[in-house]
Amino acid sequence: HCQVSQVGCMTVRNAVASLEVSTSSAKCMLFHEDEGVISEFSRPFARDVADGPTQNPDGIVASALDVLRQAVQWAGAHGIDIAAVGLAGTWHSLLLLDARRRPLGAISTWADLSAAPSVAELRQDAEFVTDFYHRTGCMVHAMYPVWKWFHLKRTQPEVACRVAHVSSQIEYVFQSLTGCLGVSRCTASGTGLLNINTLDWDDDILEMAGVRREQVGPLYEAFHTEPMFASVAERVGLPSGVPVTVGCADGAMNQVGVGGVRSRTMSMSVGTSGALRSVHDEPRIPNTPSTWCYYLFGGKRLAGAAINNGTNCVDWFLSRAGVKGRDDGAYEVFSSGAGQVDVAGAPYFMPFLFGERCPGWREEREGGFCGVRASHDEFDLYHAVLEGVLFNMRQCYEILARVGGSPDQMLVSGGILNSDEWAQMASDIFGRELLATPTTNSSTVGAALVALQAVTGRGQAEEYIPQITRSFVPRDNMSEVYDRRYRRYLELYDRGV
To answer: What is the pLDDT of residues 215-252, one digit of tens each?
Structure first.
């Protein structure tokens, strides 16, 4: 069940290991400042460990330690010393612990929207929504841990009264490896409980949500470390006391891993979902709640947007078109076919099959095709799906550019790079050059760079510049076509189609 990939077969010393727990797998990367990625290991979570909305906390830790042990064994066989372990996890998770710091249930991930009924009531108060947004950089949305907790207190008070610590996925991994409580301000900024201006827990929001200060962990910068438990170090084959970083969110680490800490650089990732991010020296929050603003490190804020619909829409369409399983050849056939479509006369796709996050934050929104004619075939529809996802991304991009300025460069990553046709379409739709790096797991690279900076005191995470391997330049004739189609998409969007 464990996938391994290696880059080269060099012998180096003083590398770091980055350990990431995502929604679906545990990943470990060996990374060296000069050599870059040395080797990568991954282990998909078993179905009884992670099902999307929930994760088994001890199962997550066990999977993470298994993949870390495999990486350490490989490093030992190749004469590589590991100087530190950098942690990364998912944003917006909630885990409740008892007085012994043991889980009271499963981890609730960002995909758990069970708090939607309570959130719908709160959203009736527009003044409250706006005030909360400008305090935290977060939306009043069921994804955020503050509202998961708020809903739990309303619906299961008997569980809430047993909670001693309000924790998260990555905090539990850090606790399990070091025995210490703690959360990075980066991770905390995605809870809805941290004030994005003061970078401290917001007392008014804590009181409103019914969370006591002693229930949340001490706040640290991303580079804070604690020594690994002797028993854990022995289990994975590391020296006792090796430094472990407090852990940061995958989205933030993705920005670091693509070299996006530099000012006026925007990252764009399109995988199962999609995201845009750029770094600023102060909060960048539009007046109307739409995009988000979280914390990175060193006083830097991360302004961004995320959409729920990316390659999951592509996979949905192909499955409905009769493609079975992971038929990689089908992607090539459909991508090639979409490249021959008469774009000006193609149908439109509203990409909200899985609800809407940015910019409208409507969980209940539905997706579908518009303007379909009998002359359209499966390739026209496939083109519309790819285009619709990117139009939603462009909506978010325009908001971010208004509040933070247009970026000097855009770095693209994710599953979109598996299709040159789709990446070229993105360049045409955004009307600007898109640059691609060779790294597939940028968030794991980011966690490694944070670990390097934590143990050396130098600026590896802030100064990293990756190699650019590909670029996509907009075609003038197609950019004009897509501009017209984008305006029509916005009309359909505003009508709630």
So the answer is: 999 999 999 999 999 999 999 999 989 999 999 999 99
**What's the CA gap between 171 and 93, in Å, rounded?**
10
pLDDT of residue 169: 98
Displacement of CA 114 from its chain's centroid (Å): 20
Residue 190 carries which side chain, given as an amino acid letter? Answer: G
Strands 225-227 and 54-55: unpaired
Q: How many CB atoms lie within 10 A of CB 151?
A: 18
Mean pLDDT of the chain: 93
Contact 215, 163 (CB under 8 A): yes
How far is it, in rounded angstroms, from Cα 492 to Cα 227?
55
CA 379 and chain centroid, separation = 30
Q: Which helix (H) or strand (E) holds 129?
A: helix 126-136
Residue type at 220 in one-letter notation: Y
Give yes or no for a contact between 272 and 311, defined as CB atoms under 8 angstroms apart.
yes
User: What span, in angstroms and rounded, lies between the C-alpha atoms of 277 and 295?
Assistant: 12
Half-sphere exposure of 190 (CA within 13 A, CB side): 28
Q: Is the peptide bond before 359 cis (omega within 30 degrees of 0)?
A: yes
Collapse the DSSP code of 348 into the 3-class scheme (helix H, G, I; strand E, B; otherwise coil) and give the result. Answer: strand
Alpha-carbon span 15 to 80, nearest angstrom: 7
CA distance 78 to 38: 11
Please, is 487 exposed, middle or buried when counting C-beta atoms within 10 Å of its C-beta (0-12, 13-18, 19+)? exposed
d(Cα 449, Cα 445) in Å, to the nearest integer?
6
Say if CB 171 and CB 95 are below 8 A apart: yes
* Cα–Cα distance, 291 to 141 (Å, whole number): 12
Between CA 289 and CA 117 the distance in angstroms is 19
Distance between CA atoms of residues 18 and 75, nearest Å = 13
Spell out a b/e string for 431-442, using b for 16 or more CB atoms within 10 Å of the CB, else e: ebebbbbebebb
Q: How many other β-carbons are positioned within 10 Å of the β-carbon of residue 181?
A: 16
pLDDT of residue 325: 65
Fill in the amino acid letter for 305: A
- Give the residues across from 31 on adjacent strands: 16, 37
Single out the residue of 370, 429, 369 nearest to residue 398, CA to CA. 429
**Residue owning tokens 């947007």:** 305
Class of residue 208 by CB neighbours under 10 A (exposed 0-12, middle 13-18, buried 19+)? middle
Check pLDDT > 80 for residue 106: yes
C-alpha span between 277 and 190 (Å, rounded): 14
Q: Determine the 3-state secondary structure of 268 from DSSP.
A: strand
